[in-house]
Amino acid sequence: MKLTVNGEAHEIATATLAELLAALDYEGNWLATAVNSELVHATERTLFQLKDGDQIEILSPMQGG
Amino acid sequence: MLELYGTKLPSRLLLGTAQYPSPAILADAVKASGASAVTVSLRREMAGGGRGGEKFWSLIQSLRLHVLPNTAGCHSVKEAVTTAKMAREIFGTNWIKLEVIGNHDTLQPDVFGLVEAARILCGDGFAVFPYTTDDLVVAERLLGMGCKVLMPWCAPIGSALGPVNVTALRSMRGHFPDVPLIVDAGIGRPSHAALVMELGFDAVLLNTAVARAAEPVGMARAFGKAVDAGREAYRSGLLEPRDVAVPSTPTIGQAVFQ
């Protein structure tokens, strides 16, 4: 399955968003995720099914003004 | 005491957390400023367990202040709304500093997109702090969408120009006497902060002027004092300027020498 994760192309065989995060070594409760520009809550990641062509954003806190 | 969306803040200074020489200097500057709230942001997390976001978030949590996430860098309503929702997920607050940028050079707000994003987010339960211009009509629209606070710029972000249109800021204060008004962006010096507080603004939000100072901790302390001084001056009643001289020393009983 072809996915775009934080702007980078990935060819990966994961079914759910939670599996994708684990496969790419993202972990922690300070992450927020969106698929195709829509927020996916942390509690929904285990059941959230990914499909070919999905665009995933994984964000974390950083400095801001 | 300053009250924003039902939250009372002991200080009228809100400080940004970007561009400091080190995390330790950031923490010391925030403490020296006496700020009640700090702004934070969201960015793409690196893969591979870098945990950079976690370290920063731990530092911010250790300061035990109110956190105001922003939507910096968003140029569309969709980007801003999604970023706001992601910020609420991570930071656990419904406060959002709403930025919808309309111009790459000036970083001025896209006020049309701002009003639309404010409508969506206010309807979704957010406490929206809109980064806006000093335009009164836009301000009215934002209030109509449910914003309870307005954050006009006084000059372009990071410019350090200070208030470039004092008349407009004064007009804004006069038109919205009961709305908390926070000057956000463009402050370069403590005297700028004192000036807008003397105009009756409720608070100041700044970042670059402290973070990029030669001594950020000292500058943070200076800004804290300036904000307090400006506020106390406003509350104490400032003398209006006059075009003619008025002697301060009584003239009655003055000796006459021939």
Can you describe what's shown?
The complex is a heterodimer of chains A (65) and B (258). Chain A has 65 residues and is mostly beta strands. Chain A has a single domain, classed as Ubiquitin-like (UB roll) (Roll). Chain A is built from 1 helix and 5 strands, in the order ββαβββ. Chain A has a 5-stranded mixed sheet, with no helix packed on it. Chain A is globular, with a radius of gyration of 11 Å. In chain B, strand 7, helix 5 and strand 8 form a beta-alpha-beta unit. In chain B, helix 1 packs parallel to helix 9. Chain B has 258 residues and is of the alpha/beta class. Chain B has a single domain, classed as TIM Barrel, CATH 3.20.20. Classes of the chains: A mainly beta (65), B alpha/beta (258).
Total separate domains of chain B: 1
**Annotation field: number of helices of chain A:** 1
- Going by helix content, strand content and strand pairing, the class of chain A is mainly beta
User: Tally of extended strands of chain A?
Assistant: 5
Name a few traits of the molecule:
heterodimer; A: 65 residues; mainly beta; Ubiquitin-like (UB roll); 5-stranded mixed sheet; 37% strand; globular; B: 258 residues; alpha/beta; TIM Barrel; 5-stranded parallel sheet; 3-stranded parallel sheet; 16% strand; Beta-grasp_dom_sf (chain A); Mopterin_synth/thiamin_S_b (chain A); ThiS/MoaD-like (chain A); Sulfur carrier protein (chain A)
Please sum up the structure shown.
The complex is a heterodimer of chains A (65) and B (258). Chain A has 65 residues and is mostly beta strands. Chain A contains one helix and five strands.
